[in-house]
């Protein structure tokens, strides 16, 4: 068992100090456990180091966070500058996302790439959903992906989070393998975010003449472009 129903009661604690104390004591160790299991999966599939960034909410001085999360991506300094993976919890559910939020520079490129790959969405599990605003709890069906991505492409402040939510009623049955399975299902989308599947790029580089040194350009700054 990872999360329990008691974890959701943390978000009823009134003060910032007390709520953060419980988040650090009860929730962040679970994020670390999930991250420890997920990082090897991402690194194996993307051929690059990945890092777990657990939100510390240090900018908050009065109001306690309504949710808490951890981001996972290939940049040691942060995760919001590109599509990234998340694990988090709010008062209603645990969420496992592939996220494009807070206006990364490659937002239009990601949206265009995904719009050109409809098969990747049709292959996702039917119980996956989309969040169009990371500050709200509302989600829409996965079938809304074309509308969501068109908005992501044309509206600067739009967002897209794709994945699965686990409501309170189901939470005590959720296992670590289930969460990892969500990440694994989302990996093809992540790898496709720059127009051509990143694995195809790696294979292309590997097929160069053996007499030439392998080069792994990283002009875009995205993950999955480091040497094997």
Q: Main β-sheet, in a few words?
A: 7 strands, antiparallel
How much strand?
15-25%
Question: What distance lies between the first and last C-alpha atoms, to the nearest angstrom?
Answer: 34 Å
CATH evolutionary superfamily: Protein of unknown function DUF1054
Principal-axes geometry comes out as globular
Number of strands: 7
Q: Enter the CATH topology name.
A: BirA Bifunctional Protein, domain 2
Name the strands of the widest sheet in spatial order: 1-2-3-4-7-5-6
Please state the structural category: alpha+beta
What do the pLDDT scores average to? 89
Structural summary, described in words:
- There is one protein chain.
- With 228 residues, the chain is an alpha+beta fold.
- It has one domain: 2-Layer Sandwich (BirA Bifunctional Protein, domain 2), CATH 3.30.930.20.
- It has helices spanning 5-8, 16-46, 107-115, 118-122, 145-154, 176-191, 198-206; strands at residues 51-54, 67-73, 84-90, 93-100, 129-131, 140-141, 160-167.
- A 7-stranded antiparallel beta sheet has the order 1-2-3-4-7-5-6.
